[in-house]
Specification:
By secondary structure, the protein is an alpha+beta fold. The chain has helices at 20-23, 25-28, 30-33, 118-136; strands spanning 7-16, 40-43, 50-54, 60-69, 73-80, 91-100, 103-114. It contains four helices and seven strands.
């Protein structure tokens, strides 16, 4: 039996100058999600639907949607395909979209992370929150520099 690990929660907030209805599809539409995270994305955006986000050919995030409130909230389980520390479904990721000042306050809460994994996830979410802010505000971010070049088949 594995020992129970202590876990921690990450919370990040960012203001995005677009309406929640403009921002929401960046979490549910594969063509929009891939503009800010990963280079190959598979999404089944319904309750219990699974997702797979290939960040760089090696790091592959997986989980399933547990709550979807259009233009307001996305909750999903989260983990990494080959990870023993954060396997798929072992943590919970919540995005809240709150209208604010002609834009949206995006609040990310990532809970259930092993304490040893918090720093790397803070670094990752800081990177991806700035990317979603830019693309949702209409800036072309191009390919994610943290992703390796992918050869189209």
């Amino acid at each position: 039996m594995m020992p129970i690990q202590s876990t921690d929660t990450i919370k990040k907030e960012i203001f995005i100058a677009c309406r929640p209805a403009t921002l929401y599809p960046f979490f549910t539409d594969p063509e929009k999600l891939v503009r800010w995270m990963g280079h190959h994305v598979l999404l089944d955006t319904q309750l219990g639907g699974k997702f797979r986000i290939d960040l760089d050919g090696n790091n592959i995030a997986m989980g399933e949607y547990t709550e979807l409130i259009p233009n307001e909230k996305i909750v999903m389980t989260w983990g990494w395909e080959k990870s023993k520390m954060v396997p798929p479904g072992s943590s919970t990721l919540e995005f809240l979209l709150t209208p604010q000042d002609n834009g949206t306050l995006l609040v990310l809460t990532h809970s259930g992370l092993p304490v040893s994994e918090v720093d790397s996830h803070i670094k990752g979410w800081t990177h991806f929150m700035s990317r979603i802010q830019a693309v949702a505000q209409g800036e072309d971010q191009g390919n994610d520099p943290s992703s390796q070049e992918v050869i189209q088949e």
